[in-house]
Amino acid sequence: METLLVVAAAETPVYRARFAQAMPDLHVVGTDEGFDPAAVDYVAGWHAAPGLFATLPGLRAVFALGAGVDALLARDDLPASLPLVRLLDAGMAEQMVEYALFGALTWQRRVHDYDLQQRHRLWRKQPPRTRGETAIGVLGLGSLGGAVAGELARFGYPVTGWSRRPREVDGVRCLHGDDGLVQLLGETDVLVNLLPSTPQTRGLLDRHRLGLLRPGAYLVQASRGDQFDHAALVDLIDDGCLGGALLDVFEREPLPTDSPLWTHPRIRITPHVAATTLVEPAVQQIADNIRRLRGGEPLQGVVDRRQDY
Amino acid sequence: METLLVVAAAETPVYRARFAQAMPDLHVVGTDEGFDPAAVDYVAGWHAAPGLFATLPGLRAVFALGAGVDALLARDDLPASLPLVRLLDAGMAEQMVEYALFGALTWQRRVHDYDLQQRHRLWRKQPPRTRGETAIGVLGLGSLGGAVAGELARFGYPVTGWSRRPREVDGVRCLHGDDGLVQLLGETDVLVNLLPSTPQTRGLLDRHRLGLLRPGAYLVQASRGDQFDHAALVDLIDDGCLGGALLDVFEREPLPTDSPLWTHPRIRITPHVAATTLVEPAVQQIADNIRRLRGGEPLQGVVDRRQDY
After folding, report:
1. What distance separates the 2 farthest-apart alpha carbons in chain B?
2. DSSP A158-193
3. I want to staple B30 with a disulfide (CB 3.0 to 4.6 A). Which of A37, A83, B12, B232 is the partner?
């Protein structure tokens, strides 16, 4: 019987119960349970202890329990020959659409303005904005970004998408490359960042680039926390250049209690929940891929390590 | 030349400019400008001074600048023979969809929970909810309610609608009558109230009926402020029976500064802006109806005064 090692702490029993239905002939153990390293065929998880993979001589594949694989790529105990597989959607695109739409509506309907008025018991109508007047920019057009851009466009927003290499999404104006990024930022009211964390994207949204956004623009940050400059964001909001931000990811998580982001009246913070991995579709995808491995078929969602995502 | 009297204070110049394009042969004046009462053929507005209509012997129709006509119906200077015409949509349905969707996402994505955690710099993931687990109830299935119910259903929420008399909306389970209301409330997580203000709906959402909602349910109130019991709402939220509310309309507007609603952490207040009248479509509809009057054709949007809406 093959063994899957789950690195998901308290969630191991949930995964075991699901795999018992989806793939009864798979033995599922957690890292905090007794297991024989030599018997482990597969790993599913996020943040395994340093060096763990080097202790698993029979490892045939690593399944990331999420769309982002930067933490796994940064390790030095994953042989280049080992398939590293990411989840394709698994219910995350739907959630990301909701999160981005909530951010877009927050800006369009001036929620932060009205919240601040409410603090002062102030009854004052602000000029309305239509969807057509709300220019959305989506960075990253992979499985999450493409879904978000397409759905926001279907809802009636003018949407521009950007990716490093040329992509196409129905109903979305797609730009690429350095010039495309500068153009998108200058024409965007609500920036939704869904870029993967790679050496190329780290620090991408620096003070200069955030300053290119339209006056009063809003940032929805839901990919990784290492891509933009938090201090610059706060300064730009305080200077009136930006209108606010909805932040789900941070350089350090949990966000340290002394971070000034917690108390800013125009910044809403959520604890890395924009799109959480849903166990059922995750198990389904992993089981499908294990069947492909057994049958000698190519896996779905294998990370191209030269591209870093 | 026919004369239209606009009762919209500071907005009169905006309406005049639009009518100059849509109907150049119409003379447009404001109540704060010099005008000859005997020359007025039409009135467009919200809250005309008491007795104004009795001073206009040539009045042929009154156009409400909104969907709700309760303020006009409550007057005693509008002869029963005079057509009272309401706006049909005029861009308001789109806005109401946005407002209701914002409310639904607020509940589904636990925004109040995370906002309260943010106040305490607390990083804690709450159990996610899917759209399928978010039961929406829409009260009122007229031009606004029908659009909201249909769009929320298309977005993936299970939606039940209710109206006094039987109605049908694509993709929406429609109930009616007293029993239907009780059934809807007991199965609703997010209640969107879009009922018109009539003698039948005033006080409809009293303490008892609000208490029928599912535990932790959320109220989106965007029609009129005389339909529910604000004190009961606050009590039910404080008791943990309800999860919060998004309120746009109130019994007294502006909401008095001493209202406890202003400072409640689970109540978001907007100043009657859920759906504002957009000048361009409003002028288009009024001009179309004036052309119909001139041509002896039936008007669109005439209020059936026996039904109060």
Report:
1. 68
2. -EEEEESS---BTTBEEEEHHHHHHHHHHT-SEEEE
3. B12
Chain B residue numbers with beta carbons less than 8 Å from the beta carbon of A130 are: 91, 94
Q: Catalytic amino acids of A?
A: 224, 272
Which sequence positions of B are flagged as catalytic?
224, 272
CA dist A238 and A232 (Å) reads 10
Q: Quick check: B268 and A118 CB within 8 A?
A: yes
* A267: exposed, middle or buried (Cβ count in 10 Å: 0-12, 13-18, 19+): buried
- Residue type at A290? I
Nearest CA-CA partner of A115 in B172, B158, B119, B73: B119
Count of A-B CB contacts under 8 Å: 90
Q: What is the ipTM of this complex?
A: 0.86
CB B273 within 8 A of CB A126: yes
Chain A interface, best mutation among B109, B122, B268, by max A CB count within 10 A: B109
Whether A60 and chain B come into contact, CB under 8 Å, resolves to: no
Verify whether the Cβ–Cβ distance B125 to A272 is below 8 Å. yes
Report the candidate in B11, B63, B66 with the shortest Cα–Cα distance to residue B33. B11
Residue A269 at interface with chain B, using a CB cutoff of 8 Å? yes
Scan for tokens 């969907």, then name that residue: B67
Per-residue pLDDT of chain A (309 residues; tens, 9 = 90+): 899 999 887 788 999 999 999 999 999 999 988 899 999 999 998 778 889 999 999 999 999 987 778 888 888 888 888 999 998 877 899 999 999 999 999 999 999 999 999 999 999 999 999 999 999 999 999 989 999 999 999 999 999 999 999 999 999 999 999 999 999 999 999 999 999 888 888 999 999 999 999 999 999 999 888 888 999 999 999 999 999 999 999 999 999 999 999 999 999 999 999 998 888 889 999 999 999 999 999 999 999 887 655
Task: Answer yes or no: do B105 and A108 touch at CB < 8 A.
Answer: no
Cβ(B3)–Cβ(B40) below 8 Å: yes
Strands B267-269 and B136-139: unpaired
Tell me the C-alpha distance between B307 and A138, whole Å.
Answer: 48
Chain A closest-CA separation from residue B81 CA (Å): 35
Q: Does B109 contact chain A (CB < 8 Å)?
A: yes
The answer for residues whose C-beta is within 8 angstroms of residue B295's C-beta and 6 or more apart is none
Q: Is B11 on the interface with A (CB under 8 A)?
A: no
Q: Which of B108, B124, B253 lies at the smallest CB-CB distance from A271?
A: B124
pTM value is 0.87
Instruction: For residues A222 and B48, give the distance between their C-alpha atoms in angstroms, rounded to a whole number.
Output: 49
Tell me the two tokens of residue A28. Answer: 């599922």
Place of tokens 């209710």: B162
Residues of A in contact with B131 (CB under 8 A): 94, 98
